[in-house]
Amino acid sequence: NTSPGPYLRFKMSSTEAQAILDAFYKPEFILMRERFYGKDYMSPGGEAAGKELLLRLSLRPGEKVLDIGCGTGGPATFMARHYGAQVHGLELSDNMIQLGQQRLNASEETLVKQRVKLEAADATTVQLEKAAYDVIYSRDTVCHIKDKKKLFENCMPALRSGGRVFISDFCRGDKEPPQEFTEYWKEKGFNISTFDEYALPLKAIGLKNIVKTDITNEIVNNNAIYI
């Protein structure tokens, strides 16, 4: 199972979208998913896969990170704990944020609590301080957002000059997928693009040096990490 994404297929306010998402992501369902992926993680591979991905980012101590689709805060706390980053996590599901914040408040890691901020907000409309972040990070989230152009136009002004964008996500190849697969994407609320389609709104807002790394073979050959 994955995010239902019904809020992506219809025009509605962020409040309405949040209510629909939380009706699906009830606390008991979040905990059930964590039994598959590990505490504080909602994506395949959990912390092990996140650790592998973050090695590619080369975070530096003190860097400020905007985490789009932070879930219950697993990657955010990992970046704060192991890299010394300051992380602002955005997540549309209020239920996820509440659970993540409860765990953060109960943590005895004072520095982690000081470095992590979790916020229930729509990343396509939330007001962000301009040039405030060194890194914009997102893991397995943007494929659920239909209007990627709106997302990037809203978030990219918050990136400092010379900053980095690091997104892991599901993309499709250049060949047309089977109809049953396309229907499955639509049913689940996915908005999966080719890499070139994905890159268009990033190029349109002036992002340079866009690099694609296809890790399909790594996932297939090392499924102990990625599933």
Structural key phrases:
single chain, alpha/beta, 43% helix, five-stranded parallel β-sheet, 5 strands, 227 residues, disordered N terminus
Q: Any overview of this molecule?
A:
This protein is an alpha/beta fold and 227 residues long. It is 43% helix and 15% strand. It is built from 11 helices and 5 strands; from the N terminus they run αααβαβααββαβαααα. It has a 5-stranded parallel beta sheet with strand order 3-2-1-4-5. α3 packs across α4 (74-83). The longest helix has 13 residues, at 94-106.
Please mark out the parts with pLDDT under 50 across 5 or more consecutive residues, or reply none. 1-10
Helix content: 40-55%
The DSSP helix count reads 11
Largest sheet, in brief, is: 5 strands, parallel
Share of residues in strands = 5-15%
Summed over residues and divided by their number, the pLDDT gives a mean of: 87
Give me the Rg, rounded.
17 Å
Shape: globular
Q: What's the β-strand tally?
A: 5
Widest sheet: strand ordering = 3-2-1-4-5
- Order of SSEs: HHHEHEHHEEHEHHHH
Tell me the structural class: alpha/beta
Distance between the termini: 13 Å
